[in-house]
Design a protein that fits this description.
- By secondary structure, the chain is an all-alpha fold.
- It contains three helices and no strands.
- The chain has helices at residues 11-27, 31-43, 53-69.
- α1 packs across α2 and α1 crosses α3.
- It is elongated, with a radius of gyration of 15 Å.
- The N and C termini lie far apart (65 Å).
- 11% of the residues are buried.
- The model has no long low-confidence stretch (mean pLDDT 84).
């Protein structure tokens, strides 16, 4: 029998990650990331759902990347 450890995210972190998943799906630059974020949004509606360690890691990565790159399409106004 194999024991798989579960990485538990604090509730407030999980809520924050789930809050940004629809935005990640909308702004995703590739179809895989868009599908992953959409899938997480659907799964999160289930009662007592918790992400797997891999899902949690990827959710953190996608949200971090979203904030790291921001909205590069628009120019940032320069304040003089």
């Amino acid at each position: 029998m194999t024991y798989i450890s579960r990485i538990e995210a604090p509730v407030d972190e999980l809520e924050r990650l789930l809050f940004y998943m629809p935005t990640v799906a909308e702004r995703a630059t590739n179809t895989w990331a868009q599908g992953f974020a959409s899938s997480i949004v659907r799964q999160s509606r289930r009662h007592n759902w918790r992400p797997s360690p891999k899902q949690l890691t990827m959710m953190r990565r996608l949200v971090t990347e979203m904030f790291a790159h921001g909205n590069e399409e628009e120019e940032c106004p320069v304040i003089e």
